[in-house]
Each structure stands twice: as C-alpha cells, then as structure tokens.
Write a structure and sequence with these properties.
The structure holds two protein chains of two kinds. Chain A is mainly alpha-helical. Chain A has one domain. Helix content of chain A is about 85%, strand content about 0%. The longest helix of chain A is centred in the middle third of the chain and has 39 residues. Chain A is globular, with a radius of gyration of 21 Å. Chain B has a domain of about 140 residues: 3-Layer(aba) Sandwich (Rossmann fold). In chain B, the strands form two sheets. A six-stranded mixed sheet of chain B has the order 6-7-8-3-9-10, sandwiched between helices. In chain B, strands 2-1-4-5 form a four-stranded antiparallel sheet, covered by helices on one side. In chain B, helix 4 packs across helix 5, helix 5 packs parallel to helix 6 and helix 6 packs parallel to helix 7. Chain B is globular, with a radius of gyration of 18 Å. The chains are: A mainly alpha, B alpha/beta. The interface between A and B is medium-sized, with 13 and 23 residues.
C-alpha cells in the first residue's frame, strides 16, 4: 500500500518541483531583460536565427493548411448549402487558431531543439562555466536574447503565416472550388475583425516566449555527454509543444468567452 | 594569497571534498595532483564560485569569497582577477578565435574599442605561438593543441593576477604537452601571477610547479615544494609520482 502511494506520489512531487524550477527560471530571465548589460549583437543574431530563418517553414505550413482548410470547409458547408462561408471561416480559423498554433509548433520543433542542443553542448563542454569566469552572466548572455527574440519575432511570423494561409485558401478557392477571386477576397476582408488577428498575434508572442524559455531551460540543465544533450533537446521540444497547446486553450478561454 | 580551510563538498552520497586545507602564496605556482575523480576540478570550481562548498572557508587576500551576500559587482571584481584555462579549451564556437581571446576586453564597464581589443588579442595569440591569421578562424577549425593555446591566450588576455589551469596537457602529444608546459611556466613568471594547476601529468608538475599538493580521499595528503616531492616517504605520493599499480591507492576506483 505504502509502496503504491509512494509510486503515485513521487512523480507528482517531481512534476511540482519541475514546475517550480521552470517558474523560477522564467522569473529570473524576465528579471534580467530590463537590467543592463544588454547584448544587442546576440539579440540581432537570435532574431535572425529564430525569426527570419523560420519564415520558410512557417510559410509552407500556412499555405498548405489554408488550402486544406478551404477544401474541408467547402465540403462541410455544402451539406447545408453554406459554401459561401469558406473565405471568412478560412480567415478566422487561420488568424485565431491555426496560424499561431501550427506556427508555434513548427517553431518549437525548429527553435526549441536548436537552442537546447546549442546551450546543452555549451554546458557539457564547460563553455557556460567559461562565461562565468569571464564575468558574463550566462542567463543574460544566452537566455535573454533568445527569449526576447522569440517573443518579438513570433507575432511577426504569425502575421505572415496568417496572410499566407489565407492566400492558400484563396488559391484553392478560385482554382478548385469555383469561387470568384474578387468575391472571395471581399468576403475575407468584410468578415475578419481586427481582434481575430490581434488575438492570434498575442498568442504568437506567448508561444514564442514558451519555445525559447523551454529551449534555454532544458539546455542549461542538460546532463553530461551526448546522451544528456539529446535528452535535453527532446525534453525542450516536447515540453514546448505541450505548453503551447495548453496555453492556447487558456488564452482562447480568456479571449473569446465572456 | 588564496587560503582554503576545511572545505567540504558532496554530490548526493559521494563525498568529494572532506576537509581540504591549503594555502597558495601570491606569485607562486601550486600544482594539485591526484587521480581521476578525486575532486581536483571541484576544488578549483569551489574557489571560482562555480560550485558552492557545503562547509569550510575560502579566502582571497583575507576576503571570504564563498560568502552568500556577495553582490554582482563584487563578484565581477573578484572574477576580473582570474583567468582560467579549461580542460577542453571551452572556446565559444560561435565566435572567431580573436573574439574568444578578447571576450572579456570587449564587454563590461571597461570595454575596449573593437580594433584595440583585436590588437591585444592578436598580441596574446602571438605570445602563445599562434600566427595572426589564426585570429579570424573559428575554434572548430583548430587542432587540439591550437585550441589549448587559444584557451591560454584567452585566460591571460585581461592580465589576470591569478590563473587556473585545468589539466593543461591532457589529450596532447608529448611534444605539444612540453610546449604548453613551458608556455605556462614562462607566462606565469613573466606576469608574476599566482598559478594553480590541476593535473595528473608528472612532466607538467616538474615543469610548472613551485609547490605541489596531492589530493586523495577528499583531503590534501601531502604538500610541499616540488624539490621535496621525490624525497617524501609518503607512500601515496610515491605511488602516484612513479605510476605504480601496487600501493595504498586502489587501482580500481
């Protein structure tokens, strides 16, 4: 009986401790964002790595998702003669949900993994210790620029993804579903409200923060050796993805239910 | 003067340091010897504050460096007095060689202009026997011996008073090891720096040390001038310096 309770309690305690450690890590990263020194060059590199180089993957994800969405909504809408909703539902679906969530997940796969692997390798090869001996706070030098870059870049990526996704729906709409191009675009614009897009951008910023935070946290806590770095990378991607989906639900609940 | 008094550190159930007491006078070169896994690196990291000891006191010129209340500025001032050569070099692979060497010079309140920092970096690279062309390479493009030299150049770039060397010759061929040993000795003497080296390479010990301390079983087994090392009757030291399989130190650890 005690053994069974212990087996149940141990993972719960471990989970609570992990949540606490991540929260403390997040708090200290946030605390360092506003205090000098600021590493602007590192921030620039991080924006390039995280934002700019993620554009292709986010764009490709968006265009195919927008296209598939148009096909599905057309198929569903035709069951009760509501094919005309395709443009507006594609736009709302992309802007509110699929743009930020799929964009976030793709960036999690691309960025959380690379941050965790890079920082994890730095930890294993004593580069983090070397930073400390050179009077440089690793949190400030490594984590802050990445977290800031991801938080600032993700809304831009989401915005671009939204536009490309809507374009994907439009392309499928006019080539495969017999929509008139002008009508499709007019319907998209008329029914899309600013907050549909705005809420998605806010979600994007939160997801960007989560992605970089998980990458840095798991990298800095990487165990020794190649296996340790591998495990850290995996943990970063898995935790970032799950947290994105959980945060998405919470944000949707906050934004759209009153 | 660096003084360690009764320093303890354990990781989980593994008691690594069990009361280390040691003094290193300013301007002298101390070499700590001991087998793998005896806690030499931990001892070094305790002094630098990379690892917090569980008990005991570590002072630098009479000031307690393990105090919890040390502010960020105090810590920066403390670390600014140190240079360290890491075992694997620990060069930042995203930065050019010269940016590695000039890392400290380019940052902080006393940051130098880029051109000047680069000039000093190239000068330090020359000091450790590397050509100026090396400056614009990335660490991954260098051989192990060259990486060690760049690490050495980085450690001395800001003219530190105290330099730590973590196994400076491990992984090098005997000739390169000899070259690095000689460089360390020259640089330490010429800078008048206090040096602390950890190694298990006896040729290193004889080339670098003024004083030697042997760490075994979590305590300093023996310490004295390098000239007295060969004559000491201590069976642990004798077994270690002659590399015998038979003796008080268990060969299976």
């Amino acid at each position: 009986m005690t053994a069974a309770l212990g087996a149940l309690g141990r993972p719960v305690l471990q989970a609570v401790a992990a949540v606490g450690r991540v929260a403390l890590f997040a708090a200290s990263v946030l605390g360092h964002i506003l205090r000098p020194p600021f590493y602007l060059r590192e921030l620039g590199t991080a924006v390039l790595q995280i934002g700019w180089f993620s554009l292709p993957v986010v764009g490709l994800t968006a265009i195919f998702t927008g296209g598939a969405l148009a096909l599905q909504i057309y198929a569903g809408g035709s069951r009760f003669n509501a094919e005309a909703v395709v443009p507006s539902i594609v736009a709302i679906g992309m802007a509110r949900e699929l743009g930020p969530v799929l964009g976030g997940l793709m960036v999690a796969a691309r960025v959380a993994s690379s941050i965790a692997a890079e920082i994890g390798t730095m930890k294993v090869t004593e580069q983090i210790d070397a930073l400390v001996t050179l009077s440089t706070n690793p949190l400030k030098y490594l984590a802050v620029p990445r977290v800031l870059a991801a938080t600032l870049s993700m809304p831009v990526l989401v915005g671009v993804g939204d536009a490309i996704g809507i374009m994907g729906g439009w392309l499928v709409g006019i080539t495969r579903l017999d929509f008139n191009s002008a009508t499709y675009l007019k319907n998209t614009v008329d029914f899309l409200e600013p907050w549909d897009v705005g809420s998605g951008l806010v979600k994007g910023a939160v997801f960007g923060f989560i992605v970089a935070l998980m990458g840095c946290y798991h990298g800095m806590n990487s165990a020794r050796g190649a296996q340790g770095v591998g495990a850290a990378t995996k943990a970063a991607v898995v935790s970032a993805s799950v947290l994105i989906l959980a945060a998405n639900y919470v944000l949707t609940e906050v934004f759209f239910t009153s | 003067m660096i003084t360690l008094t009764d320093v303890h550190k354990q990781f989980g159930a593994n008691k690594v340091l069990q009361g280390v007491t040691l003094g290193i006078a300013s301007g002298t070169s101390m070499v700590i010897i001991g087998g793998s896994g005896t806690g030499k690196s931990v001892l070094l990291k305790c002094i630098l504050g990379l690892v917090r000891p569980d008990a005991g006191q570590i002072t630098l010129d009479g000031q307690d460096v393990t105090a919890k209340g040390q502010s960020g500025a105090d810590r920066d001032a403390f670390l600014a007095r140190f240079g360290m050569l890491f075992q694997g070099g620990a060069l930042f692979d995203s930065l050019h060689v010269w940016e590695n060497v000039a890392f400290r010079l380019l940052r902080g309140p006393k940051a130098l202009p880029k051109a000047q920092a680069r000039e000093i970096a190239i000068e330090k690279l020359r000091r450790v026997g590397l050509k100026p062309e090396t400056a614009d390479l990335f660490p991954a493009e260098l051989s192990g011996g060259m990486q060690k030299r760049v690490g050495l150049a980085r450690a001395i770039a800001a003219e530190p008073e105290i330099i730590f060397f973590d196994e400076p010759t491990t992984g090098l061929d005997p000739i390169m090891a000899g070259v690095i040993n000689e460089l360390i000795r020259e640089i330490v003497v010429e800078m008048g720096a206090t040096a602390m080296t950890i190694t298990h390479d006896m040729s290193s010990v004889r080339a670098i040390a003024d004083n030697v301390a042997m760490l075994h079983g979590g305590v300093i087994r023996w310490t004295g001038p390098v000239s007295e090392m060969d004559a000491t009757p201590d069976p642990y030291v004798q077994q270690f310096i002659h590399g015998r399989a038979e003796g008080p130190i268990a060969s299976v650890r």
